C-alpha cells in the first residue's frame, strides 16, 4: 500500500505541475472529484479494515504485556523494561500513507460539496466587467440559484430560478467549455436584443441609460464615458469608449448564428429557447455574445453576487449589482 499510495500522490502532483506549467489543460472540478473518490476509498479502508487491524494488534500486545508482567510479578520482579503504553500507541498510530489520504478526506469532501453545490470562488482575470468588477476582484458565485448541477458532467438536479436580465452570471465559455467566463445577462429566451450605435434595446424598448461621471481606468490610464443602466430590477454602471467602433469585428461562427443580423451600426439577435445573450459592462472592451454567440442553459455555472477580497483595495469587498 505505501508504494501504491506513493504512485497515486505522484500522479496528482504530476498532473497539477503539468497544469501549472501549461503542458496540459487542467480541469479542477474533475481533479477535486477524483481526489474526493480516492481519499474516500482510503478513508473507508482505514475505518473498516486498517484501523480494526491496528486496534486488534494493540489489544493483543496489551494482553500479552499484562500477562508477562503478572508472571514476572509472581516471581517477585517488579522492574520491567519497555513502556507498554508507548508501544501500544505506536501500533495505533496512522501510517503516513493513510495520513495523506484518509486523513485528508473530510477536508477534501467539505471543499468538494461546498464548491460543487453551494459557493465557488473566482478571480476576475480581465477588464470586460469594469466598472462593476475590476481585475483582481475575488468573487463568490452562488451554485444553486439557477439549479443544482452535478459536478464534471453538469447534469441538472433541481430547477432553481431562471437567470434574469441584469444578473451577473458565470458560465462555461461556449467555444471552449473548459474556460469559465463572467458577463451580464442581457437577453433571456425569446428576447430580441439590439445593440446599435452603442444603444441597447430589448424587444423594441430602449434600455434606460443615464450619463454619470467619467470612469478613470488606472490600468489603461484613461477616462471612459460612464452610464447608469437599468436591466430588469438591476441598476448598474457601464462604460463606453468614444474611440470604439459601433460594428462588431471578428465575429466567429456559432450555433444559431442565423438569429443575428450584423450591420455597421451593430447587431440585432433573437435569443433562442434555452439560451442567453451575455454582454460585459465594459461594452467596447468585452468579447461577449456579440462575437461568439448565445450561452446555452447547460453551460451555466452560477450567479455572481459578492466580492470577498481584492488585495489591491479592501474597499472593494461587498455585494454588487
TrEMBL record:
<keyword id="KW-0472">Membrane</keyword>
<dbReference type="InterPro" id="IPR019758">
    <property type="entry name" value="Pept_S26A_signal_pept_1_CS"/>
</dbReference>
<dbReference type="GO" id="GO:0004252">
    <property type="term" value="F:serine-type endopeptidase activity"/>
</dbReference>
<feature type="transmembrane region" description="Helical">
    <location>
        <begin position="28"/>
        <end position="45"/>
    </location>
</feature>
<dbReference type="GO" id="GO:0016020">
    <property type="term" value="C:membrane"/>
</dbReference>
<dbReference type="InterPro" id="IPR019533">
    <property type="entry name" value="Peptidase_S26"/>
</dbReference>
<dbReference type="GO" id="GO:0006465">
    <property type="term" value="P:signal peptide processing"/>
</dbReference>
<dbReference type="Pfam" id="PF10502">
    <property type="entry name" value="Peptidase_S26"/>
</dbReference>
<dbReference type="InterPro" id="IPR036286">
    <property type="entry name" value="LexA/Signal_pep-like_sf"/>
</dbReference>
<keyword id="KW-0812">Transmembrane</keyword>
<protein>
    <recommendedName>
        <fullName>Signal peptidase I</fullName>
        <ecNumber>3.4.21.89</ecNumber>
    </recommendedName>
</protein>
<dbReference type="InterPro" id="IPR000223">
    <property type="entry name" value="Pept_S26A_signal_pept_1"/>
</dbReference>
<dbReference type="InterPro" id="IPR019757">
    <property type="entry name" value="Pept_S26A_signal_pept_1_Lys-AS"/>
</dbReference>
<feature type="active site">
    <location>
        <position position="183"/>
    </location>
</feature>
<feature type="domain" description="Peptidase S26">
    <location>
        <begin position="98"/>
        <end position="309"/>
    </location>
</feature>
<feature type="active site">
    <location>
        <position position="128"/>
    </location>
</feature>
<feature type="transmembrane region" description="Helical">
    <location>
        <begin position="97"/>
        <end position="118"/>
    </location>
</feature>
<keyword id="KW-1133">Transmembrane helix</keyword>
<keyword id="KW-0378">Hydrolase</keyword>
<comment type="similarity">
    <text>Belongs to the peptidase S26 family.</text>
</comment>
<dbReference type="GO" id="GO:0009003">
    <property type="term" value="F:signal peptidase activity"/>
</dbReference>
<dbReference type="InterPro" id="IPR019756">
    <property type="entry name" value="Pept_S26A_signal_pept_1_Ser-AS"/>
</dbReference>
<keyword id="KW-0645">Protease</keyword>
